[in-house]
Amino acid sequence: MITTFFISALLIGFLGSFHCVGMCGPIALSLPVRHLNGIEKLMGIGLYNLGRILTYSLIGIVFGMIGLSFKYFGWQQILSIVLGVVLIIIFLSRVFSFKKHKSIAAFSPWNLKIISILTPLMTAKKTGNLLLIGLLNGLLPCGLIYMALAGAMATGNIFYSGLFMAGFGAGTLPAMVIASYAAGIISLRVRNKIKKVLPYMLALMGVLLILRGLNLDIPFLSPALQASHNVYCH
Predict the structure, then answer these.
(1) Which of 76, 120, 135, 204 is the most interior residue, by most CB within 10 Å?
(2) Quick check: helix, strand or coil at residue 182?
(3) pLDDT for residue 9 is more than 90
(4) 227: how many CB neighbours lie within 10 A of its CB?
(5) CA–CA distances in Å: residue 51 to residues 2, 97, 138
(6) Burial class of 116 by CB neighbour count within 10 A (0 to 12, 13 to 18, 19+)
(7) Spatial distance between the Cα atoms of 37 and 73, rounded to a whole number of angstroms
(8) Given CA atoms 159, 172, 27, 50 in this order, what sign does their dihedral have?
(9) pLDDT digits (tens, 9 = 90+) for 147-156
């Protein structure tokens, strides 16, 4: 089952990253690597992306603990179904919504705080800063990350949850590396096409979570979940 979820995480990260270049792209394009050449530049970009993936993984571990607590109380199936239903509701709202609302998330106090810390790191031409920039970049809120975290939390396992988010981060690598090297390679037309696919990824993840919660004993899709046994002291 973890293989199915890991592949889903890769796909979410890969497809979503082309759209998210619009948000994280400016940071990737502004990385202090222009003074570097060849392998040094590649290593610098690698440090930045390593930082992002580490942050995603750590957040995944935290949400894995939450999922594990649900599993301990025997609520893992309920959690999985609820998360799946929420994702499908979001999918339906995006597909059938005809109104476009301008997001103000970019101007939230949390984002402004993170950006204020990032700014001096971006202007300093220090290769060591790139890892820290990536770590902080991973803390910026993103709807795609929320979707990935839903899948991670539903694993009910701390290790798998962290691995799921690492897979998500790995899926974003191609687009983010390209964005770090040059602007305009990923056209607006391509990003718009990818944007249309994302809601269906939400629906797919929602269906997988619901199937998992239904405990249908179907290999890979809905394997039988082992009930947790509590030990009581007399």
Answers:
(1) 76
(2) coil
(3) no
(4) 11
(5) 24, 36, 7
(6) exposed
(7) 54
(8) positive
(9) 888 888 888 8
User: Which pair of tokens denotes residue 103?
Assistant: 């997001």
The number of CA neighbours under 13 Å toward the Cβ of 126 is 11
pLDDT of residue 168: 92
Instruction: Quote the distance between the C-alpha of residue 36 and its chain's center.
Output: 29
Instruction: For residue 58, report the phi and psi dihedrals to the nearest 5 degrees.
Output: -65, -40
CA atoms of 78 and 76, how far apart (whole Å) = 5
Place of tokens 């750590």: 58
141 pLDDT band, cuts 50/70/90, is confident
Tell me how far apart the alpha carbons of residues 199 and 217 are, in angstroms, rounded to a whole number. Answer: 28
Looking at residue 155, its amino acid is: T
Structure tokens at 132: 């820290």
Confidence at residue 232, expressed as pLDDT on a 0 to 100 scale: 38
Please give the DSSP secondary-structure letter assigned to residue 186.
Answer: S
- For residue 207, which phi and psi values (nearest 5 degrees)? -65, -45
> What span, in angstroms and rounded, lies between the C-alpha atoms of 110 and 61?
21
Tokens found for residue 36: 């570097």
